Amino acid sequence: MTGPLHGLRIFDLSRVLAGPSCTQLLGDLGADVIKIERPGSGDDTRGWGPPFLTGPQGEDTGESAYFLSTNRNKRSLTLDIAQPEGAALARQLIGRSDVLVENFKTGGLKKYGLAYEDLSGDNPGLIYCSITGFGQTGPFAARPGYDFLIQGMGGIMSVTGEPDGEPMKVGVAIADLMTGMYASSAILAALHHREKTGRGQMIDLALLDTQVAWLANQGLNYLTSGVAPGRLGNEHPNIVPYKVLPCADGHFILAVGNDRQFRAFCKFAGSPELAEDARFQTNAQRVRNREALYALISDITAGRPQDAWVEGLTAAGVPSGPVNTIEQAFAHPQVRARDMEIKMTHPAARDEVSLIGNPIKYSETAADYRRAPPMLGQHTDDVLEELLGLGAAEVSALRNKGIV
Q1: What is the mean pLDDT of the chain?
Q2: For the chain, which domains are there?
């Protein structure tokens, strides 16, 4: 069985996280992703460790966990596009591709003749996805963008962390990852448009735009009220009670979503009178009186262990759960049942390498784990022969000149 994007070819000029997370997803869905890397060094994230993949003798292989996380189902081709001959090879390969994904600074590929306007004339069906920090237009367009800076500039850090603490970034590079998700959606929509019209197009995606877009309800809270939300720790700005609460042996999550659930919580907690208190009868009233409510229920929840709350409230139809470590998350029976940890053979590994599975579950065209994250330049000879018909002697000559 092949993925739904089988037959699609991606020329991947991206590195680090936003672009590679996008192209890994497309690769999981069946696309042939050709990852272009600089000869001798490759994607910066190859060196972003430890931890590194363990080799046959227990040694660090230099293949970082970071790189492994977003480069499955790709073929690595080393190519120096800064050399005219390398740029010429890139144009030939792009001519045999459906989609180009890049995350150079705005205008950075123009000097190599690889900007959209340089390529679209000869390849009008090309879908060209450009990912930058700030987009192709606007006063900051020329600036480089980094996830941490974007989280700060885009507002998410102002609503993350404890109320009396410092602004806090999310624990993974969420601005990068969400931009990769938007990029994959945009590419698929552009492919649908091309199917109907025969025309490709350029996609202009910015990390800052994406960060602002997924402010979601918090962004609308501000746009609707004119009041900028602040940090609430683990509390929810619009729903109460909805936070981490103390229990006899640690903490658990209570996530009451409506008034019926609140009444069920109060009944199970042995305090049905709280649901009749005028301050707490509706969610809007609970939001306005959150401090008083949390003071009362924190004393109640502290009296029972976590399992008692989680199991009892779940049985009562009240959303609740533990706060797992990452180790506990991967060991969770539901996560294991959904194949969210997969294993693949890797040429540098002592054993199989563990990777995070794709969350998309199709009924007909399952995600296809064909290739482990590649070694630097692992597929250079194969790709140049397959797509351009270059023989071993020609590839060797290019390698001697440092072009591949």
Answers
A1: 96
A2: 9-214+351-400 (3.40.50.10540), 242-326 (3.30.1540.10)
